[in-house]
Amino acid sequence: MIGKYAKLVSVLVAAALVLGACAAPVAEPASGDADARIAELEAQLAAAQTGEVGEEDMAALQAELEAAQAEAEAALAAAEAAAAEAAAAVPELAIPLEEFTDANIDWRGLAEAAGDEGISLNIAVVKHPFTESLIPLLPVFEELTGIRVAYNVLPQAEYWPKLAIDLSTGSGLIDVYMTGPELTWPFAAAGWTEPLDAYIENPELTDLAWYDKDDFYEAAWDANRWDGETLGHGGYGEGPIYAIPVTYEIMALTYRIDLLEDAGIVVDEGWPHTWEDILEAAKATTLDTNGDGTIDQYGIIARGHRAWPSMFGGYSNIFYSYGALDFDEQLMPAVNSPEGVAATELWVELMQCCAPPGVTDLQWFQVKQAFAQGQAAMSIDCDWFAAATYERPEVSEVAGNLGYAVTPPGPGGERVQDLWFWSLAMTSAGYNKDAAWLFIQWATSKPVQLAATRDFENWNPPRESVWEHPDIVAMTEGWANYREVVEENRNYTKVPHAVNPQVGAALDTWWGNVQDAILGTVSVKDALDRAAQEMYNVMDMAGYYD
Question: Which of 215, 303, 355, 401 keeps 20 to 30 A from 144, CA to CA?
């Protein structure tokens, strides 16, 4: 009978072990006293039955024994309940580890070889939906590999300068970081980014069949490749790969079906056919809706913040679709060509006539929020805004009332859709490069990309198998023509800027002058002439001209 209550010890100890990682420890019970008391009472009863204890004590002993047994039974039940509660309190991994055991990879080998010291990775990430999808999945990687992961999340405005400082010092404090195609060029040229080809091809670190790099869309995989030498409009998509994509963001047109219909805009197949169609629709939907003499509905909203990523908000699409270039084949600034001036004049008119006041201060997240609140009829920006916000009724006033379109070609029939791939790269100065690659491989694998998209809204996925997964199709097929536009857009996507390690400084000065034209402080022609000269100065000071 005593053994029955001894189970109490093991149950409570198990509960303590389960709770150890997530709560205050459970003290091991002092159950020896209870067992001893029960044994003592049983012995007294046995003695009473042989006449060694008077009959008057029998009833009392029996009652005391039953009370002690009941108390022990209650303690056992409470312990089992505590153990069950403790087990339930441990969060279930977001992806079962079995999803990774098919890979011919020794996931825990690096951590085990490191011994008691273990391995820790530091990753630098931008405040972005990808980051929000990655963080809940990190316990999966840690459990799978035994490698600890620390992360630092910063807004983009703070992220890039801090990252550049950290990488330039060669401290090795960062192992993995978020980046994108245009940033590959300066970082690779400076030797700050580790080429990943040797890790991908190493059978001790990578199971190529399981990883299936051919599952990535070709444009996504090639976006972070560069031969390291060719500048201008060559060398891109060739040579070593410096980062692996985790998103596929294309700049598309989103429009309010009701507002365009009310304004008499005919949205036929293939609309908008020209950039003038967008201008016409914007003018028709920029209105004083309540008659108080103040415009309260705007035809379009776009980024305008004085930093070159604002170009993604439509300007790059129109500029390059008009056949204009940032640099010519001799790497001389060409933004003030006739094609560049014509495209910029239309864009400036669009912003001046039909965008809300303060458009030159707006960043991407402000554009997304304002459009979701119904403040504009159209927007050109990342297609994933639809998935993240626009088609979610709980956060969007325009859900279910939207259409999507590929932006139109320029006068010469060329159509360019600018794009961005958030990607993961490895620092060349890191101390744990094999572990860093293990993390990048895991984070960009099919199971993680699927969970990140389906469960945590990391749109749009760069892997075809994830985009075509039945769960993802079911989530997106009700969003009007969203899927069709995303797929059509892939026919026209490319990184349009010239390969140039000075890309950030050059594009910043170009966009700053376009912003001045939007503000009306300078004509478009003068703004682009000034931009071309300033871009030349940037390149000259960096030693690119003899």
Answer: 215
